[in-house]
Amino acid sequence: MTKPLAVGVDAGLLLRDRRGIGRYARALLRAWRASFADRIELTLLVPGLLPGLRRAAFARELGGEWRVAGRDRAERLGLDLVWYPWNGMTWRTRVRSVVTLHDVWPFAAPAQDEAKRRREQHHYRMAAACADAFIAVSAFTKAEAMRLLGIGPDRITVITQGVEPLTLHAPQRRFRIAGADRFVLFVGEAEPRKDVATLVRAMSLLPPLLRRTTALVIVGRANAYPGAVGSDVAVEIMGYVSDKRLAALYEGAAVFVFPSRYEGFGLPILEAMYYGAPVIASDAASLPEAGGDAALYYPAGDAQALARMMTSVLEDDATADRLRTAGKSRAAAMTTLACAQRTLELFERVG
User: Fold this and answer.
1) Res. 224: pLDDT tops 80
2) Is the pLDDT of residue 1 over 80?
3) Residue 168: pLDDT above 80?
4) Can you give the residue range of the structural domain that contains 344?
5) R_g of the chain, CA atoms, integer Å
6) Cα–chain-centroid distance for residue 297?
7) 304 and 192 belong to one structural domain
8) CA 170 and chain centroid, separation
9) Are 245 and 288 members of one domain?
10) Would 171 be classed as within a structural domain?
11) CATH code for position 305
12) How many domains does the chain contain in total?
């Protein structure tokens, strides 16, 4: 019987990264444990002293018991490979390594402050110099990594993200906003490139009756969207929410809008589709790769075009139902299990 591949995982951010990147890493770990335990043996590598103290926290987050070790011991554990899921390498080892690239934003829009720019780009540069192979979560991200980091195409394999249920239990009830007949949903981090300002402007351009009866729900940091304050649009800013609450929001949304101008993949698009929300996205970067033919796309930054699309979905049940059906089919075809299998196959080739 072939010995399982011994893979160490850079797990320093695993418990606290609540973004799509963290969701991606945790989902793959669960999938490997559940479906490929005969092919991969995982060790979570963490910084600092007494790494075993985190074992209980990992068990709560991931389920089950996990091997945990200090990352300074990586070269003494007999590992075949170390996987860095977080957009680069903040530390390195002589063990062969694979790095997942979700985007290369710090190079596409480098910070003006030199110290900040060096800090944001450092882990990418280390990976470009040291990693044996890369995973790009979209063809767009691969092209950007080649263009901005100078990584050769043979070192990068495109493996698109997959989607899975956010919670084991279906939401007990659909989420509703007091004083509104329906709501538009956005889920994302507090960054200007997410372009929530265009979404707010589009909401203000809806026909008067729709505008008065439709709320905008933003899942993200509470103080992150000053453009939404003071508009004539009803805005509910929820900050970070539990997976159970997020599932209920996706299920209850009249439409999910993802207006980002630069994205490495766009996992919230697939999550919204999984839960049956009609999806509208900008046509920028990787978003058409994520949504395929199951979403509507508008020119990035064009609030009037977005308002017209939102109106068509909110007023026409046939359009909304068509998008829901297409979205569920696409989400069913792009699973975490498929992503985990393709990623493991790459690990086996490299390790």
Assistant:
1) no
2) no
3) no
4) 5-162+335-350
5) 21
6) 19
7) yes
8) 21
9) yes
10) no
11) 3.40.50.2000
12) 2
- Side-chain half-sphere of 53: how many Cα atoms within 13 Å? 4
Q: Are residues 154 and 205 in the same domain?
A: no
Residue 263's nearest CA partner among 111, 161, 126 is 161
CA–CA gap between residue 159 and residue 161 (Å, rounded): 7
Q: In the prediction, which pLDDT does 173 show? A: 63
Cα–Cα distance for residue pair 141/179, rounded to 1 Å: 41
Give pLDDT, residue 85.
98
Phi and psi torsions of 214, nearest 5°: -120, 130
In terms of domains, do 315 and 340 share one? no
Within a domain: residue 58?
Answer: yes
Q: How confident is the model at residue 20, as a pLDDT?
A: 85
- Whether 19 and 108 map to the same domain: the answer is yes
Angle 39-339-260 (CA atoms, 0-180°, nearest 5)?
150
- Residue 44 CA to residue 323 CA, distance in Å, equals 40
Q: How many residues does the chain have?
A: 351
**pLDDT classification of 169: cutoffs 50, 70, 90:** low
- Does residue 34 share a domain with residue 56? yes
Residues 254 and 328 in one domain: yes
Helix (H) or strand (E) holding 251: helix 243-252
Q: Which residues of 61-77 are buried (b: 16+ CB within 10 A; e: fewer)?
A: bbeeebbbbbbeebeeb
pTM over cut 0.70: yes
Which residue spans within 179-254 are E strands per DSSP? 182-187, 214-219, 234-237
- Tell whether 158 and 11 lie within a shared domain: yes
Q: Is the residue at 125 inside a domain?
A: yes
Q: What is the DSSP letter of 309?
A: H
Beta strands in the chain (DSSP E): 5-10, 40-46, 67-70, 81-84, 97-101, 133-136, 156-158, 182-187, 214-219, 234-237, 255-258, 279-282, 296-298
